[in-house]
């Protein structure tokens, strides 16, 4: 959730905006953060199943993302606005968040080893101690990521000192480094021999897949901490004095939540419709974002977690697909404004790409059926690698879905800014409310996907993909039919939003 800056215009650079190189250093932290997010999205759902958590329950672990997105970021943002540390307002939270990320990924990467050391039986499929360590690390990681991102964006705004052009440039830099972090993270996750660079990562309790994941997270720690330390050392911050803190008249609690409630009560009809379309859109997206690599391992490669190499090979192929998805996303982001003019407006483009998303889900179901009909097994009973056509088709789906994802990261936020122009709530609050409409679908999908897949798909992913296809098609129709035409005289800046900030 984007931070709501309720302090007056006290900037870290009251004498003028910071030079561009300082914006680059702070924006680069996004690459380290997103490198970890990419590993989460591509590797962790399969990993929890390797530890013995059933597919039915694995989705519940993802509940921390939206919960922390709705709670942690606004609270951290509120207190970072009012922090009087000699180290600055934002930097204490940025450094603390980075250290918590490092601690969390140690728990995640070494969960199998810690579980084995404390008594897990490797002959049993379920490893309860490793699962406990992993879940604690996973939730700490989500909280820490949300603790880190809000102050980073606020720090950039401070450095811009009210310069609107520089703010747009800093948002572009932040988005660029997020895309770069995605690409690097997915590339690392897709390389099956990465653990050979750190041979100690492969242990009795940690097989090749686990060792690769452990190596990826060690790289993530080094990358994030290096960038963060360089940024906070070279980019100074003015100390905020108690006299500069705006007295908002609250004696306790966090006034942010009262503001959010007031914003909901005063929403205009266009904004309500936007929230509905956004909610449907993300109900469509989350089955893909949470289970894409698991789909490659199970449905495309025909593998079973903890049995043979097919599942692991499919997961790594899925990470390659996510890297292609990120490359297409980054390239598409450069042409969104041109596409808007070409198709006749924001809502038309958003509706059109949602149809592409629905078609993508349909093709995932088709590829699943084709792969199942062609599947062959080796002497050991493990599924053989699917045909080149099936693999190419699956990777093509990943790549093409980068197009609607790029639009999803920009147009809803632009529409929220336009629709809120005449409302009592500011744009920051409107974007905060919009983010809640993204968090709620993730909670819904996380709570329902496991039971539905188990009941209707024998532990597979197809039932949720069918729901995603229907939600995408419905959101496409509503975007083009119900959403009002935005005010074309409003100033529009389409700086893509950061990926998966909930």
UniProtKB/TrEMBL annotation:
Keyword Amino-acid biosynthesis: no
Membrane topology category: Multi-pass membrane protein
Segments traversing the membrane: 20-39, 59-80, 92-110, 130-148, 173-191, 211-235, 271-291, 315-336, 348-368, 388-416, 428-450, 462-483
One of the record's GO cellular component terms: plasma membrane
Any matching Pfam family: MFS_2
Pathway field: Glycan biosynthesis; sucrose metabolism
InterPro entries, sorted: MFS_trans_sf, Suc_symporter_pln
Keywords: Membrane, Sugar transport, Symport, Transmembrane, Transmembrane helix, Transport
Coiled-coil ranges per UniProt: none
Cellular localization per UniProt: Membrane
Any one GO molecular function term: sucrose:proton symporter activity
Signal peptide coordinates: none
Similarity comment: Belongs to the major facilitator superfamily. Phosphate:H(+) symporter (TC 2.A.1.9) family. Belongs to the glycoside-pentoside-hexuronide (GPH) cation symporter transporter (TC 2.A.2.4) family.
Stored NCBIfam families: GPH_sucrose
Matching PANTHER family: SUCROSE TRANSPORT PROTEIN SUC1-RELATED (PTHR19432:SF70), SUGAR TRANSPORTER (PTHR19432)
UniProt-recorded name of the protein: Sucrose transporter
């Amino acid at each position: 959730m984007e931070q709501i800056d309720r302090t007056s215009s006290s900037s870290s650079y009251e004498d003028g905006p910071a030079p561009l190189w300082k914006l680059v250093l702070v924006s680069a932290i996004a690459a380290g953060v997103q490198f970890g997010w990419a590993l989460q999205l591509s590797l962790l759902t399969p990993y929890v199943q390797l530890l013995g958590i059933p597919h039915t329950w694995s989705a519940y672990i993802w509940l921390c993302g939206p919960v922390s997105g709705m709670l942690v970021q606004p609270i951290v943002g509120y207190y970072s606005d009012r922090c009087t540390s000699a180290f600055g307002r934002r930097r204490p939270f940025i450094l603390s968040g980075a250290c918590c990320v490092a601690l969390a990924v140690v728990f995640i990467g070494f969960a199998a080893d810690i579980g084995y050391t404390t008594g897990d039986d490797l002959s049993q499929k379920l490893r309860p101690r490793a699962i406990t360590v992993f879940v604690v690390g996973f939730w700490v990681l989500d909280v820490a990521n949300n603790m880190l991102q809000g102050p980073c964006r606020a720090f950039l705004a401070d450095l811009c000192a009210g310069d609107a052009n520089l703010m747009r440039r800093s948002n572009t830099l932040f988005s660029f480094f997020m895309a770069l972090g995605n690409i690097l993270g997915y590339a690392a996750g897709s390389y099956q021999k990465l653990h050979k660079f750190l041979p100690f990562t492969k242990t009795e309790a940690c097989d090749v897949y686990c060792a690769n994941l452990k190596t990826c997270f060690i790289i993530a720690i080094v990358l994030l901490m290096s960038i963060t330390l360089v940024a906070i050392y070279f980019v100074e911050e003015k100390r905020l004095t108690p006299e500069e803190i705006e007295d908002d008249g609250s004696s306790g609690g966090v006034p942010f939540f009262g503001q959010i409630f007031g914003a909901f009560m005063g929403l205009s009809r266009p904004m309500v419709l936007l929230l509905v379309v956004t909610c449907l859109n993300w109900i469509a997206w989350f089955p893909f974002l949470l289970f894409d690599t698991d789909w490659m391992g199970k449905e495309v490669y025909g593998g079973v977690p903890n049995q043979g190499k097919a599942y692991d090979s499919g997961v790594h192929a899925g990470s390659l697909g996510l890297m292609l998805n990120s490359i297409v996303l980054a390239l598409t982001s450069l042409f969104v404004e041109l596409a808007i003019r070409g198709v006749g407006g924001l809502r038309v483009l958003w509706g059109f790409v949602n149809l592409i998303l629905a078609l993508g889900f349909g093709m995932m179901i088709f590829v699943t059926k084709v792969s199942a009909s062609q599947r062959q097994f080796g002497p050991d009973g493990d599924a053989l690698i699917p045909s080149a056509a099936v693999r190419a088709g699956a990777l093509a789906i990943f790549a093409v879905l980068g197009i609607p994802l790029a639009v999803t990261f920009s147009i809803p936020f632009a529409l929220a800014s336009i629709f809120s122009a005449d409302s009592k709530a500011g744009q920051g609050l409107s974007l905060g409310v919009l983010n809640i409409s993204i968090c709620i679908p993730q909670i819904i999908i996380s709570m329902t996907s496991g039971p539905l897949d188990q009941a209707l798909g024998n532990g597979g992913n197809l039932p949720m993909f069918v729901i995603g296809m229907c939600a995408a098609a419905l959101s496409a129709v509503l975007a083009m039919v119900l959403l009002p035409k935005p005010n074309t005289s409003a100033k529009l800046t389409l700086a893509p939003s950061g990926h998966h900030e909930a």
